[in-house]
Design brief:
Layout (H helix, E strand, L loop, with lengths): L2 H8 L5 E2 L10 E3 L12 H6 L4 E4 L10 E3 L3 H16 L3 E5 L4 H12 L5 E3 L9 H7 L7 E5 L7 H9 L3 E4 L7 H4 L2 H8 L1 H8 L3 E5 L3 H6 L4 E6 L7 E7 L5 E4 L2 E4 L8 H13 L4 H10 L8 E5 L2 E6 L5 H12 L4 E7 L8 H14 L4 E5 L1 H4 L8 E4 L2 H7 L8 E6 L9 H4 L1
Parallel strand pairs: 1-2, 2-3, 3-4, 5-7, 5-8, 6-7, 8-9, 9-10, 10-11, 15-19, 16-17, 16-19, 17-18
Antiparallel strand pairs: 11-12, 12-13, 14-15
Helix pairs in contact: 1-3, 3-5, 4-11, 4-12, 6-9, 11-12, 13-14
Length: 426
């Protein structure tokens, strides 16, 4: 079936869906395949649950007028999403980066939604399936689309840009994330910069942090709109004030106090302010959006448990974000306990990067450091204030919660470590 014809059918549907557990009435179900599942086998069930159509790519599952046979469901999903994006013909902002993507996306959405009807990536559905689903969730009511893009290999951002065709782009930063897939920090820079390549080739606009020399260098010949902290040459100047306990900044005649901790969040906030300014959102609305945004989903959350204050930043971790979190944590007052979990996808650099983090933690003004995971278990220790556990279960057995009183705790690790489980112990 031609994409144009399929799109006309899609416009009669409620939304695109790839999971029968989340089927709603009149959805279009895409029977994707994975390493351990075949979505074709769920097509009939999807229709029974209310799907208007089921897109399949194996002829034996093309069993009714509600099933549509295509050559490849995955490719069809991407092609349909790209066609739908062109059909709507609305401004699309894309963003990627090593750290802060989702927080920045949420802040941008909070600001722009003050003036426009926006559709943004839900959660962190930012991969080769999530981006098409985000595009297909946009409707004729959508005035601006905001698409988060994640990648752990070269050419992935390039591919996602070809699908989403962004008019604007922003890269939060270039850090030591997914080193295994990118092959090192140079690979990270090259991979993330594929967004710049797409935007520059199509003469689109790039939002640039003028305080980041890599961003400035990579966008020298591009159409840009820049921001900077005390950088008078930038299009928008936003002054950092402090980050204790929360990030405060000054923009024109307004002082903004966020609910985000850590100086590293200043540039996430500044990007949202800048993009709001570019799209002419009134300053008072920008201020309200920034100040009312509260972090969730284990990202820089402040939680009070009895007499203890917890900084829960357990959604993910890499060397760059871990360093930033530790340096911010050092500035906290009180008895500080850092519970750090393994950082994944570092490949051959894993041993050295975990050792670097342990060495840094020891050097900082942090009273107790608890390391959890196989990588951290291998670090060499030269301090009595550090302990290590090979697994979470080992940590759970040995962790004496009775001694944790009037303390400040940092909980940070990669998603696979699921360190939010520490809350249950506390």
């Amino acid at each position: 079936m031609e994409i144009q014809v399929l799109h006309k059918l899609y416009l009669k549907c409620a939304s695109a869906n790839t999971d029968t557990r989340k089927i709603k009435a009149n959805d279009m179900f895409f029977a994707l395949k994975g390493a351990n599942f075949n979505g074709n086998t769920y097509a009939e069930k999807a229709i029974e649950l209310g799907a208007k159509y089921a897109i399949v790519d194996e002829v034996e599952y093309n069993t009714s007028e509600k099933t549509i046979l295509v050559n490849n469901v995955f490719e069809t999903l991407q092609q349909l999403a790209s066609f739908h994006r062109t059909f709507l013909n609305i401004p699309v902002i894309a963003l990627t980066g090593s750290n802060g993507k989702t927080t920045t996306k949420e802040l941008i959405n909070a600001v722009l939604s003050k003036k426009y009807c926006t559709t943004a990536t839900f959660g962190n559905l930012n991969n080769h399936i999530g981006v098409p689903l985000t595009l297909l969730s946009m409707t004729k009511k959508t005035e601006i689309g905001i698409v988060e893009m994640g990648a752990n290999h070269l050419k992935e951002i390039e591919s996602l840009c070809q699908i989403a065709k962004p008019d604007y782009g922003y890269i939060t930063n270039f850090g030591k994330a997914h080193l295994e897939g990118f092959g090192g920090i140079e690979g990270v820079i090259k991979g993330k910069s594929e967004m710049y390549g797409h935007l520059m080739t199509n003469n689109k606009t790039i939002f640039v942090n003028a305080n980041d020399p890599i961003q400035v260098e990579k966008t020298q010949n591009a159409s840009t709109f820049s921001f900077g902290n005390k950088n008078l040459s930038a299009d928008v100047v936003i002054d950092f004030i402090e980050a204790q306990p929360f990030v405060k900044c000054r923009f024109q005649d307004l002082e903004l106090e966020s609910q985000l901790i850590g100086e590293y969040n200043f540039y996430n906030i500044a990007a949202a302010i800048t993009i709001g300014n570019y799209f002419k959102v009134p300053n008072v609305d920008i201020k309200q959006a920034i100040e009312s945004y509260a972090p969730s989903n284990n990202r820089s959350q402040i939680i009070q448990k009895g007499s203890n204050k917890i900084i829960l930043d357990a959604y993910n971790a890499n060397p760059t974000s871990m360093i930033a979190a530790l340096k911010n944590f050092e500035k906290q007052s009180g008895n500080k306990i850092a519970i750090l979990g393994d950082m994944f996808e570092l490949g051959k650099d894993a041993k050295q990067e975990h050792q670097n983090i342990a060495d840094l933690a020891i050097s900082l003004n942090i009273e107790n450091i608890i390391l959890v995971g196989e990588n951290f278990f291998q670090v060499e220790m030269n301090s009595g204030k550090i302990t290590k556990h090979k697994s979470f279960s080992d940590f759970e057995k040995q962790f004496d919660v009775s001694n944790i009183k009037k303390a400040v705790l940092l909980i940070k690790g990669s998603r696979g470590m699921a360190l939010e489980r520490v809350l249950e112990i506390l």
